[in-house]
Amino acid sequence: xxxxxxxxxxxxxxxxxxxxxxxxxxxxxxxxxxxxxxxxxxxxxxxxxxxxxxxxxxxxxxxxxxxxxxxxxxxxxxxxxxxxxxxxxxxxxxxxxxxxxxxxxxxxxxxxxxxxxxxxxxxxxxxxxxxxxxxxxxxxxxxxxxxxxxxxxxxxxxxxxxxxxxxxxxxxxxxxxxxxxxxxxxxxxxxxxxxxxxxxxxxxxxxxxxxxxxxxxxxxxxxxxxxxxxxxxxxxxxxxxxxxxxxxxxxxxxxxxxxxxxxxxxxxxxxxxxxxxxxxxxxxxxxxxxxxxxxxxxxxxxxxxxxxxxxxxxxxxxxxxxxxxxxxxxxxxxxxxxxxxxxxxxxx
Length: 348
What we know:
- The protein has about 350 residues and is α/β, with parallel strands linked by helices.
- It contains 10 helices and 16 strands.
- Strands 3, 5, 6, 7, 8, 15 and 16 form a 7-stranded mixed beta sheet that branches. Strands 11-10-9-12-13-14 form a 6-stranded parallel beta sheet, with helices on both faces.
- α3 (about 140-155) crosses α4 and α3 crosses α9.
- It is globular, with a radius of gyration of 20 Å.
């Protein structure tokens, strides 16, 4: 049975959406619209959005939606969010109205660039008490991506003291991956950066060694005189580094990636029996896997780590309120590939 809209919740809400049949290489297809405020049923909660962060996936989905036919419904983007629960479905057990939460949502539903959003409780945890909404919104998607890559895909153990190379480490995922690897393993962490400010950021996050990904990786690694590298993660521009990754990785090593190289010839990894691991944070929600609630557990553990002072927010660019103008500017900034840490907008 569908619950009625509560008296303090408006029947209509503001949202910023991507339109179809528009230019794919600009932000011109982003518009402000009015939508019916959704009503939670079953395991859904309704969250009043307080802050969001922008990720590369936002810009990719915007472009993809612009290329659709003009009879396609507007798509509300945004997947990282922090806010307050204002209504719950009849099967919700983990949360109540008034709880402050954070989450990364799912691809197949309307996103967080709106006043209110429906989200399955299995993807949500209580927001860290020590963070404001903006700092909290910066983190869920990257925490889940980094955590799943390190511990679900690559299955790194707590006592692992061998080398981990993270290519493109100064972005959102790399920033949290460094912290998690340093806190929860014994890994020697090598991160790549290309600018003085991103090198400084990696030092702050806890990298042991930093090299430049705009130069050849192999000679830089050799200069460090480190043991062989059994674990390599590439977070962007993987196609540009594949040959060197294949040369650097140790026999029987593990290689993980999250981006979408135009071509990917895995034959270079055959002689070393290297395993390839793709991480896609939305897999659990997209296929409603039996362990879908693991994302709730990961975010809950991360919140405890933040509140104990062991993990810190990676918010580094605040673009002001969630307005159409500011959201367009945030998308355009993300597309420069120069963001260090995370990009956040706060409040409508």
